[in-house]
Specification:
Blueprint lengths: L14 H26 L14 H16 L2 E6 L7 E5 L6 H6 L5 E5 L8 H7 L3 E3 L4 H16 L3 E4 L20 H6 L3 E10 L2 E2 L11 H9 L4 E7 L10 H16 L6
């Protein structure tokens, strides 16, 4: 069930105080991220062997978990992620979704090309193995698909948002089926992942982007937010079918929708 917190929350008198200590911690954490990207992170050697995470993967998970904690969010894993190589497909409501999944499992994400030009963030994303896609360009999509297949065949995990953009007000949009072809070409499993903000086990949809809300507006709003659980549900893999990309997309969406709308134990 969805929480009535989908509407704007009442005035929170503690919000200004949270900025006082969270902003300095965030600045220090950015410096920590720069250190990880320059001194530790190397995706050239970032392949799991015998199910064991390389050091770079653990560094990504640590940085992501700490970032969520600065925002007051507790990352919770539900279910078991498949070992690499695997294609993760997840719902998309917030810029934090990448951080959510990374807090539990490092993966190469497919993200919009505009992020590559963002100061510092674009550089850090590229160092983390992000595959950039220019929306609306078939040529870009073909190149992205080729890189996805290459990464998967190298033994890595790749994560995508099949909705093609962020949803609003808890609405799960239609999944694009073409992106599932990468798993078929690389012959790897597909695992749906439900990313869910919750408080006392009930879903909070207002943590995502509001209609016409800017990135910075959402960033500042969440930075002052009351504590939340951020749940990462690793769901049952979908059956792979050479002639059923649409069925794979629909099955993934159905499993994610069920996980999103089912209350979790408080």
């Amino acid at each position: 069930m969805e929480s009535t917190d989908a509407n704007p929350t009442p005035r929170d008198p503690l919000r200004p105080l949270r900025y006082v200590w969270r902003v300095p911690l965030l600045l220090l954490h950015v410096l920590f991220g720069i250190f990880i990207c320059t001194a530790i992170l190397s995706w050239a050697g970032g392949v799991m062997k015998d199910g064991k995470e390389p050091f770079g993967h653990r560094a990504i998970r640590l940085w992501s978990t700490l970032l969520l904690r600065i925002f007051g969010f507790r990352s919770v894993r539900i279910g078991t992620p498949l070992p690499d190589p695997v294609l993760f497909v997840a719902n998309h409501t917030s810029w934090l979704d990448i951080v959510l999944l990374h807090s539990q499992r490092a993966a190469c994400f497919v993200a919009k090309a505009e992020i590559a030009g963002w100061p510092l963030v674009g550089w850090m994303a590229a160092r983390g193995g992000t595959i950039f896609h220019r929306r609306g360009s078939n040529h870009s999509l073909a190149s992205v698909m080729a890189v996805m297949v290459e990464r998967l065949r190298e033994g890595r995990a790749v994560a995508v948002f099949p909705e093609g953009g962020t949803g609003h007000n808890g609405v799960l949009r239609v999944f694009h089926a073409r992106i599932f072809q990468a798993a078929l070409d690389a012959e790897v499993p597909v695992q749906p992942v439900a990313l869910r903000f919750a408080r006392h086990g009930r879903r909070i949809v207002d943590a995502g982007f509001r209609e016409d809300e800017s990135f910075m507006g959402n960033f500042l709003r969440l930075l002052g937010e009351r504590p939340l659980d951020v749940e990462v549900h690793f769901l049952q893999p979908v059956p792979v079918s050479d002639d059923g990309r649409r069925r794979m997309a629909d099955a993934s969406r159905e499993r994610i929708a069920l996980a999103l709308d089912t209350d979790t134990p408080a």
